[in-house]
Design brief:
210 residues, 13-stranded mixed β-sheet, 17% helix, globular
Length: 210
């Protein structure tokens, strides 16, 4: 069996749709082998997939794990105001300005919080929950094959709804908050259809040759 390197990212993923058809997924990582950072994946209404990443190294890692039509290295920042519920997030990434407000914990969030973290982070648990995720939240996957022979799994620990969101791209308002539909095609799975913030640990196994 080929040797692999394990990369673990601890943080949050937020996903929203807009009335214009553009969908956005924010990764805000407080701990990772690449340091603390944030990146934004954008899929326009015409299907164009764009990665906004803060450094060339981060852009390279993410682009080799997911699929994009365009990669931009731009300053990316995330400012968080208030507590988890009703907290306000401000995201700046190049020409993107995105603000959203987090609401209450979902029923799934309460279930996720009940799973012991050591169990929840394992690949075996991700394999089991992947079957349930496909049924309960269509488009969502917790385990799959990423790009370049990589394997990735998500250990979700909490889930909150997004109540409000406003997005501007190149100074143009992209319209009201909408469901994340159709699911963006960055990788093997999508963020939940209902706009939300997931607290999670993402683990990526990278073959030694990469």
């Amino acid at each position: 069996m080929p040797q692999t390197h394990r990369f673990r990212f601890v943080g949050h993923i937020a996903g929203v749709g807009t009335a214009s058809g553009t969908r956005l997924v924010l990764g805000s990582w407080v701990q990772s082998p690449l340091g603390a950072f944030a990146d934004v994946m954008v899929e326009r209404s015409d299907g164009t997939r764009i990665l906004l990443a803060p450094t060339a190294a981060i852009a390279d890692f993410v682009a080799k794990t997911y699929v994009f039509d365009e990669v931009r290295v731009v300053p990316v920042s995330v400012a968080l105001h208030g507590r988890r519920r009703h907290s306000r997030w401000q995201v700046s990434a190049g020409s993107l300005r995105w603000e959203f407000t987090v609401g209450g914990r979902t029923p799934m969030g309460y279930l996720l919080r009940a799973v012991p973290r050591r169990i929840g982070r394992s690949q075996t648990w991700a394999r089991l929950t992947d079957l349930a995720a496909r049924t309960v939240m269509p488009g969502v996957r917790t385990l799959g094959t990423a790009g370049n022979g990589r394997i990735e799994w998500y250990a979700a620990q909490d889930l909150h709804r997004i109540e409000q969101s406003s997005v501007q791209w190149d100074g143009v308002d992209l319209g009201a908050l909408s469901e994340v539909d159709p699911p963006p095609a960055f990788g093997f799975g999508s963020s939940p259809r209902v706009p939300s913030v997931t607290t999670l640990v993402s683990t990526v196994l990278v073959p030694e040759a990469h």
